[in-house]
Amino acid sequence: MRTASYVARSTGLRSFWLGFAAYLLPSFPIAYVWHLVLFEQKYHALQIYRDEPVIAFGLASMIIQGAIFSWLFPRVFAQGSGSFLKDGLLYGLGAGLLSWSFTTLAVAAKNVMVSVPDYVLLETAFTILQFAVVGPLIALAYRR
Questions:
Q1: Are the C-beta atoms of 124 and 104 separated by less than 8 Å?
Q2: Is 108 a domain residue?
Q3: Any idea what the Cα angle at residue 113 is, between residues 109 and 115, rounded to 5°?
Q4: Where does the pLDDT of residue 67 fall: very low under 50, low under 70, confident under 90, or very high at 90 and above?
Q5: CA distance 140 to 118
Q6: Is residue 110 part of a domain?
Q7: In terms of residue numbers, what domain contains 59?
């Protein structure tokens, strides 16, 4: 017979993995298309990135981020605190702001590039798109 704590743990694990997938599955294609297809020439013109990016490092980074952002969601939003869309957009705003601080501001502060404003604009738009998508999806993964 299943105990309440077993059911809660298994439901929590299921939500964690769904939240992880909700981050990783859209993030990788969005990032790939954004950086290496749609705006490849703009990033190349900034002279900030290597000619051949190491895709495996980008994927590994997203795996780590997905685990952390999924684990963090239920610790930030109590179950049933609001609609998944509202919670997801709020979560996306907070998580996106955190991400933007180290993927945009910190990079712009320490890397040589042709145009800091162009880089900040590109990465800000990317971060807004990414977290507008993954925030609600992570919230949906934790919806009961």
A1: yes
A2: yes
A3: 90
A4: very high
A5: 34
A6: yes
A7: 13-142
Query: Nearest CA to 96 among 142, 8, 30, 5?
Result: 30
Provide the residue type at 97 as one letter: L
* pLDDT attached to residue 81: 63
> What is the reported pLDDT for 38?
97
pLDDT reading at 103 higher than 80 = yes
Tracing tokens 């980074």 back to the chain, one arrives at 61
Burial 129-142 (b: 16+ CB within 10 A, else e): ebbebbbbbbbbbb
Residue 101 lies in a domain: yes
Average predicted confidence (pLDDT) for the chain: 91
> Cβ(123)–Cβ(100) under 8 Å?
yes
Global pTM reads 0.88
- Residue 6 in any domain: the answer is no
- How many structural domains compose the chain? 1
Considering Cα of 27, then 122, then 72, then 76, what sign does the dihedral take?
Answer: negative
